[in-house]
Amino acid sequence: MVCARIFLASPYDGMQLIYEVLKKTNGDTQGDAFVNAAKGMSWESPRRPMTIDPDTRDVIHNIYLRKVERAKGELWNIEFATVEMVKDPDKAARE
After folding, report:
1. What is the domain count for the chain?
2. Which domain holds residue 43?
3. What was the pLDDT predicted at 1?
4. Which letter, b or e, does each residue of 9-36 get, where b requires 16 or more Cβ atoms within 10 Å of its Cβ?
5. What's the predicted TM-score (pTM) here?
6. Signed CA dihedral, 21, 22, 26, 32: sign only
7. Non-local CB neighbours of 42 within 8 Å, separated by 6+ positions
8. CA-to-CA distance for 44 and 46, rounded, in angstroms?
């Protein structure tokens, strides 16, 4: 089920971004206007906070570290740490 949530969140995020950009541009879908409106945009995703990096236009988001533990006879993913607002590591290394 965890994998399904990840794959379902990506289309949600894409549609959320398109919706917000169209509102910001008053429906203008021309390339430059659309891309410029998306730069730096932030929203609350099923994956929690998301931002578009204004310099690289990549997504910046939290990474949640989890471990599997048994609780009440069932296995659960227990979040134990958060790496906040992670950028593409390859591009971040070049900065």
Report:
1. 1
2. 2-94
3. 46
4. beeebeebbeeebeeeeeeeeeeeeeee
5. 0.75
6. positive
7. 49, 50, 51, 52
8. 7
